Automatic annotation (TrEMBL):
It comes from the Archaea. SUPFAM superfamilies: NadA-like (SSF142754). The gene is nadA. This is Quinolinate synthase. Pathway: Cofactor biosynthesis; NAD(+) biosynthesis; quinolinate from iminoaspartate: step 1/1. It comes from Methanoliparum thermophilum. Keywords: 4Fe-4S, Iron, Iron-sulfur, Metal-binding, Pyridine nucleotide biosynthesis, Transferase. GO terms for biological process: 'de novo' NAD+ biosynthetic process from L-aspartate. It is an enzyme of class 2 (transferase).
Length: 298
């Protein structure tokens, strides 16, 4: 049976992250960033959510939608989320007892439970500013931590000392100068997970959905994009009259590309792999996630 029929039969909806393969974005009911997807999942009238993205995103959807069955086509691990380990987080908390803890959404639920608030790349400075402490433990991405530190008067203490997204880290200054030589009129738009060197040369730094919104507003016709390659599909689809070039052709997240149409069909047929979270962890992790939603909707 085809995906469309299976979706109808099971009252299922397919949610896909901005970074997944183009053919999956094309059949998804909704494509967005992790927070948009989790919020969308709470609003839809579906019994089953098939999510295409990586582990921490699937967990967030499951935590915010406890009454719905959440499936993934395959196990996709975010290497950045893996860079935070429980012992270092707890050691830092002991070392800075007065600091609040803000964790990027790219963390596993077992770590979210230690946060005062979660943030995404689109709301990180706002969430940090809302904390009632001068010091904030922030993790796990060092580049996002630096970006936030430049936007706030609070002291940002990165946890761990050097967590990074391998996909964004592969975008080098050399790639950027080559791309600028080829497309001198293009605006440089990058994600805050890019290194500090790249961020300094950028015209705009924004989250995935922020990049889409910015390119729509801009009068420019050409853009050099510094993020995972999957976003290019959405940019081109939504702005066919503008030109988008990757700064580096190597910015590909293997975990995001693990999902395929065949695996989606299989998942809908068999209803495995199910995303389940320990009830005790879910009940604690939902608190800092809801805190972020509360802060950003005020
Ligand atoms: O929140 C997300 O989906 C991530 C990881 C990045 C972004 O900028 O959308």
């Amino acid at each position: 049976m085809r995906i469309k029929d299976l979706k109808k039969e099971k009252n299922a909806i397919i949610l896909a992250h901005n970074y997944v393969r183009p053919e999956i974005q094309d059949i998804a009911d909704f494509v967005g960033d992790s927070l948009e997807l989790a919020l969308k999942a709470s609003k839809v009238d579906a019994d089953l959510i098939l999510f295409c993205g990586v582990d921490f995103m699937a967990e967030t959807i499951a935590i915010l939608n406890p009454s719905k069955k959440v499936l993934v086509p395959d196990i996709a691990t975010c290497s950045l989320a893996q860079m935070l380990d429980t012992d270092s987080l707890l050691d830092y908390k002991k070392l800075y007892p007065d600091a609040k803890v803000v964790l990027y959404i790219n963390t596993l639920a077992k770590h979210k439970i230690y946060a005062d608030a979660i943030c995404t790349s689109s709301n990180a400075p706002e969430i940090v500013d809302s904390m009632d402490s001068d010091k904030v433990l922030f993790g796990p991405d060092i580049n996002l931590a630096r970006y936030v530190a430049n936007k706030t008067s609070k002291e940002i203490i990165p946890v761990p000392r050097y967590g990074f997204c391998s996909t964004h880290y592969q975008i080098t200054i050399n790639d950027l100068s080559t791309a600028v030589k080829k497309h001198p009129n293009a605006e440089i738009v990058v994600h805050p997970e890019c290194t500090e060197d790249i961020q300094k040369k950028a015209d705009v730094i924004a989250s995935t959905s922020g990049i889409i919104r910015y390119c729509k507003r801009s009068n420019k016709e050409e853009f050099l994009i510094g993020t995972e390659i999957g976003l290019i599909h959405r940019l081109k689809r939504e702005m066919p009259d503008k030109e988008f070039y990757m700064i580096s052709k190597f910015s590909v997240c293997p975990s995001m590309k693990i999902h395929t149409l065949d695996k989606i069909e299989r998942a809908l047929k068999t209803e495995i792999i199910n995303v389940t979270i320990d009830k005790n962890i879910a009940s604690k992790a939902v608190i800092p996630i809801k805190r972020m939603i509360e802060i950003t909707s005020n």
